[in-house]
Amino acid sequence: MWGIGNAAEPGCRLRNVRKLSAIVALLLVALLLAGCGESSEEKAKAQVCSARSDIQKQVTTLSELTLSTSILSQAKDGLEAIAGDLTKIKEAQPNLEPARKQQVEAATHTFETQVTSIVTGFVTNPSLSSVEKQLKSSLTQYAKSFEKVLAPINCS
Fold this sequence. Notes:
This protein has helices at about 10-35, 40-65, 70-90, 100-125, 130-150. The mean pLDDT is about 75. It is an all-alpha fold. Helix 2 (about 40-65) runs antiparallel to helix 5 (about 130-150) and helix 4 packs antiparallel against helix 5. It is built from 5 helices and no strands. It has 2 domains: about 1-35, no CATH class; about 40-150, no CATH class. The radius of gyration is 28 Å and the shape is elongated.
């Protein structure tokens, strides 16, 4: 097939050896490039940072809501998006390097605890006359909780 064993054609043998060497070299380069992809740790960090960034956007949006007929649905949508982002962060945690994993786990736990407290306070003490004030207060606390707990996670 390659004519390597055919002594009658030395020029052909040399060409085939060169072709074979080129193929082997290309395969080695391909294997090296395949190994240059993102590690699971890098992917996890990117996932955490992307989710943190989205939480920050949602918190900003929630803190800017004004009283309207759609305020409750807008608040619900924002809170659901944040819950989804927290799930993404939790899914990425096992692949983070140990120090970052510990920081992210602690921040996520603290943020969830504070948010649960805020939501519980809002739900258990509803006052129709002061819904906007309570909602705004709750969303402001939510923003402060984010700034205190999740914002410090280094994503650079």
